[in-house]
Write a structure and sequence with these properties.
Helix content is 51%, strand content 0%. The chain has 92 residues and is mainly α. α1 packs parallel to α3. The two termini are 20 Å apart. 16% of the residues are buried.
């Protein structure tokens, strides 16, 4: 499960770095602005790669399912507004 989490975070950082703007408001009530992953999580939410849960939480301490991971990867791979280098890394 750790490999999955590392893959998710790597994808989050790659896709998050591909864009230069960050959302103005915190989309998740359980991700404080001073959290180390706040910028990546906020950017991925703004880009539509992650959605969180219906109760406005992200639940970052919880293991993700293979279905959640597949959904994030599919959404990241569908992005067309990334650099060629980032697209190659995402596709890999």
């Amino acid at each position: 499960m750790k490999k999955t989490l590392v893959s998710a975070l790597t994808t989050a950082l790659v896709v998050g770095a591909a864009s230069t703007t960050f959302a103005a408001a915190n989309p998740f009530s359980d991700v404080p602005a001073d959290h180390w992953a706040y910028d990546a999580v906020t950017q991925l939410a703004a880009d539509g790669v992650i959605e969180g849960y219906g109760d406005t939480t992200f639940r970052g301490q919880q293991n993700i399912t293979r279905y959640e991971m597949a959904q994030m990867i599919a959404k990241a791979m569908a992005k067309s507004d990334v650099s060629a280098a980032d697209k190659a890394l995402i596709d890999k």
